[in-house]
Design a protein that fits this description.
Layout (H helix, E strand, L loop, with lengths): L3 E4 L10 E3 L9 E3 L21 H4 L6 E10 L2 E8 L19 E8 L8 E9 L5 E6 L8 E4 L4 E2 L4 E9 L6 H10 L15 E10 H5 L4 E9 L2
Parallel strand pairs: 1-13
Antiparallel strand pairs: 2-3, 4-5, 5-12, 6-7, 6-13, 7-8, 8-9, 10-11, 11-12
Length: 230
């Protein structure tokens, strides 16, 4: 089993819950938000407190909410990055995805333990002559040309990967009431039916890639970044 540490860019969430990612992807069915415990994860995990800086709160397209990394089949690993979730600048639930043509996103993978990215998968959005929105991926092993396709669809990205992007239910679970009760009583209070983020949405991008190509047989660290063209 590959060992993975998932690190968020602008922000991240840590926990041990599971929730359906209700996107019509055909690529992933369940997003595993477990970044501790089991044989899959290392103990060296970073996550934010989600009280973002003012500039991030003003720019939902730059506000990365989660990074998920999990085994999705025989020699397959899926990485999902979510953004534009619960954010001061964007009412929730929202009714459409946030595809910002001036934003550049990246998934970075360290597969030799030096805390430096050995693989970087970039993606960005644009429109064609018909004003249809598409996504472009670069840096994916197995192809020397950009992988381009429409949003809300699964398509191959070279020899070893396939990708998807679209609007999805926020897969992270948070019992806000239980959290506050725990602070007041110093006793763990949890109810799996109380999901503060139920009905909230994110925009997400996912890549499923051959595990041996991603890891080289080594433990990996994965993080995501967002940037903006000025």
């Amino acid at each position: 089993m590959t060992t993975v540490a998932a690190l968020a860019g602008s922000t991240g969430r840590g926990g041990s819950m599971y929730k359906n990612l209700r996107a019509k992807t055909g690529l992933v069915i369940v997003a595993a938000a477990a970044i501790c415990g089991g044989n899959w994860w290392t103990l060296n995990v970073r996550a934010s407190d989600h009280d973002e800086s003012p500039l991030v709160k003003m720019d939902a397209a730059q506000d990365i909410t989660d990074v998920y990394v999990f085994n999705s089949g025989d020699n397959k690993t899926t990485i999902i990055v979510c953004w534009a979730g619960f954010n001061d600048s964007r009412p929730q639930p929202d009714d459409s995805a946030l595809y910002d043509g001036n934003a550049l996103y990246a998934i970075k993978v360290d597969n030799d333990g030096d805390n430096e990215a050995d693989l970087t998968f970039y993606w960005r959005y644009g429109t064609n002559a018909k004003d249809e929105i598409g996504i472009q991926w670069t840096g994916i092993p197995g192809t020397d040309v950009p992988a381009v396709g429409p949003v809300e669809s699964v398509f191959d990205a070279g020899q070893f990967a396939r990708v998807w992007t679209g609007h999805a239910d926020d897969p992270f679970f948070f019992d806000a009431q239980g959290y506050l009760e725990g602070l007041d009583t110093a006793t763990v209070s949890f109810d799996s039916k109380r999901d503060f983020l139920a009905g909230y949405n994110v925009t997400a991008a996912a890549i499923e890639i051959d595990t041996d190509v991603l890891t080289g047989g080594n433990p990996i660290q994965v993080w995501a970044t967002s940037a903006r063209k000025e």
